[in-house]
Amino acid sequence: MLEIRSARKVFYKGRPDEKKALDGLDLSLATGEFGVVIGSNGAGKSSMLNAISGAMVLDSGQVLINGDDVTGMPVHRRAARLARVFQDPMKGTAASMTVAENMLLADLRSRKRTLRLGLNAKRLADYRERLALLGLGLENRLDTRVELLSGGQRQSLSLIMAVGGSPELLLLDEHTAALDPRTADIVMQATVRAVEALKLTTLMVTHNMQHAVDYGHSVIMLDAGKVRLEISGEEKKRITVADLIGHFSVKTDRMLLAS
Ligand SMILES: Nc1ncnc2c1ncn2[C@@H]1O[C@H](COP(=O)(O)OP(=O)(O)OP(=O)(O)O)[C@@H](O)[C@H]1O
């Protein structure tokens, strides 16, 4: 479970270019819930993820993971509890190494520091099983160098590597934004398969309204550093892209009227 309580962050405080990134943001994500975060540019989405991961220190407020207050916890200690997948498919993996070697690297990095190095049969069988969750056939390409994979396969590999240590929370930071629409859909389907199989509590930031409609249990809309709208349950199942875009345009209309 993730809870954010009254999170506030102001950049360049007191200066003419002062920026309120988070303005008393409250958010709660139940264990096993898949929340999709949307919002216009500058709404505070990245700031929220940075506050959760510890990459950004809050001015005030709290972040709790499964009831533990991690607000003051340094990034490297939080990293053991959460996984984050970024936009760039080239960043999460080592290009010149094979799929299996990348999986081993992630293993060594994430949890079992006492693991003896080496790709033994047991470990390879485990990697095959985990890669099969994605439904992309990567389990049959353990010896392929990662640079020979497509962007979508590579991004899906980053995802499965990131969640190897059974994180309490998965953060998806526009992880399909750099991919063409068809590949983005493939990666989303692979994501959902892995998230469901591993029962991960997940928070995904996206600008793709179709993905916000199609995936996840709830849609959380941020605006000016706080949650403006949350749609879940039956309402979420019925929501359309037009409805979501409507919520954006209400705001824009108000801003036009005010100007
Ligand atoms: N490191 C920083 N220094 C100064 N201002 C920042 C910094 N990070 C964020 N901001 C400001 O805080 C506000 C929220 O930014 P943030 O990046 O969190 O929004 P976002 O919703 O992720 O936007 P986008 O969709 O464009 O990625 C913006 O006004 C932004 O300019």
UniProtKB/TrEMBL annotation:
- Entry keyword annotation includes Nucleotide-binding: yes
Molecular functions per Gene Ontology: ATP binding; ATP hydrolysis activity; transmembrane transporter activity
Which InterPro entries does the record associate with it?
AAA+_ATPase, ABC_transporter-like_ATP-bd, ABC_transpr_LolD-like, P-loop_NTPase
Question: One Pfam annotation, family name?
Answer: ABC_tran
The protein's matches in SUPFAM superfamilies, at most eight in alphabetical order, are given as: P-loop containing nucleoside triphosphate hydrolases
- GO CC, one annotated term: plasma membrane
Q: Which keywords does this chain's UniProt record carry?
A: ATP-binding, Nucleotide-binding
Domain ABC transporter: where?
A: 2-249
| Annotated Gene3D superfamilies | P-loop containing nucleotide triphosphate hydrolases
Q: Which PROSITE patterns has this protein been placed in?
A: ABC_TRANSPORTER_2
Q: Does the keyword DNA repair apply?
A: no
Q: Which PANTHER family match?
A: ABC TRANSPORTER DOMAIN-CONTAINING PROTEIN, IMPORT ATP-BINDING PROTEIN
State what protein this is by name: ABC transporter ATP-binding protein
